[in-house]
Design brief:
323 residues, mainly alpha, 18 helices
């Protein structure tokens, strides 16, 4: 079931274009370029919402337009651009909802976050942090009306509950669907494959064996125990989950190290897609592109910006941007 592996959000997006325009990739790619461009505008808007500073917001928007990774991904039929746009739109509308207290914005933000989660399951972890951020925004703005004895966070309780419910309903519905069809009550296979990849990398560092060979041994042992030549989706999910948690219990420090190294490698190294799509520099423009594509440059720019926010005592925006 490929929808269980990747989630239904992006396939639904693609199917509508294929239904209308046929199997030509160009309408899809054109829409992704538009969404990627709109995402830069949302970065500008989000910066303005958090910092109330037009200069900083313009710089943030400019840096977003210069992101070689975003430009590259918009030219490939992958879920990244669609997810990025929907998630940013949900976040922008949510912050507006908290500041303006408008129900329709909470409803819209919740629906969009649900769609984002069905595209990339990682956004499911944003529901509770966003509610915490809402409390911080209320406190920062001091929205208590003069003479009122009711804390504004109490007035936000029902809208926030509505937001969370609307974000969770698609998740719960999809998990039930997966349980009925695949016998796995989970959002996506990535819930198991993500931890499995990290723990097998930890075992690779410990034993020197390739992490793919480690996972192959997990499945081979499971097949031997069950007397099967192939594992079902549910059995594959169970093997990855059980082996991952077993290794976390045995050596959680090693797993944390493996995860940290993986994150640092992804931040520091150039993007593989850009390495393939952009040739070796033989002009000033290509040299600039490859320089901007260095993950370490982006990291130091981000850390410098966060440092400036902390120095200016803009703690809440810094925390939101880090998260």
């Amino acid at each position: 079931d490929i929808l269980f592996t990747f989630g239904p959000g992006f396939p639904f997006f693609l199917s509508n274009f294929i239904r209308i325009f046929g199997e030509s990739p160009f309408p899809i790619l054109g829409s992704q370029v538009i969404l990627s461009s709109l995402s830069c505008a949302l970065i500008y808007r989000l910066s303005l919402q958090l910092l109330y500073d037009y200069v900083t917001a313009r710089i943030a928007g400019l840096l977003a337009t210069l992101s070689v990774t975003s430009i590259t991904l918009s030219c490939l039929i992958l879920s990244d651009t669609f997810f990025y746009f929907v998630f940013l739109l949900s976040l922008t509308i949510f912050i507006d909802a908290v500041r303006m207290g408008t129900w329709w914005r909470f409803v819209t933000a919740g629906i969009l976050l649900g769609i984002a989660t069905l595209t990339r399951s990682v956004s499911q972890f944003w529901i509770i942090p966003l509610m915490v951020i809402a409390m911080g925004l209320v406190r920062q703005a001091r929205l208590v009306a003069p003479g009122s004895h009711v804390h504004p966070s109490l007035k936000l309780a029902k809208p926030l509950f509505t937001f969370a419910l609307l974000a969770l309903l698609p998740i719960i519905g999809w998990m039930i669907r997966n349980g009925v069809i695949n016998d796995v009550y989970a959002l996506a296979m990535t819930n198991a494959s993500g931890p499995a990849n990290v723990t097998s990398l930890a075992l690779q560092a410990k034993t020197g064996r390739n992490f793919r060979d480690v996972q192959a041994d997990w499945f081979a042992e499971a097949k031997s125990k069950m007397g099967k030549s192939e594992l079902s989706l549910a059995e594959t999910y169970e093997v990855m989950t059980s082996e991952s948690f077993a290794e976390i219990r045995r050596d959680w420090c090693g797993v944390v190290r493996a995860y940290t190294n993986l994150v640092w490698e992804n931040v520091r190294d150039r993007d593989y897609l850009n390495e393939v799509l952009w040739p070796q520099p033989d002009s000033l423009a290509r040299t600039l592109v490859r320089t901007l594509n260095r993950g370490s440059l982006s990291l130091w720019l981000a850390l410098a910006g966060l440092g400036i926010l902390v120095i200016q005592k803009r703690t809440l925006p810094a925390v939101i941007l880090v998260s």
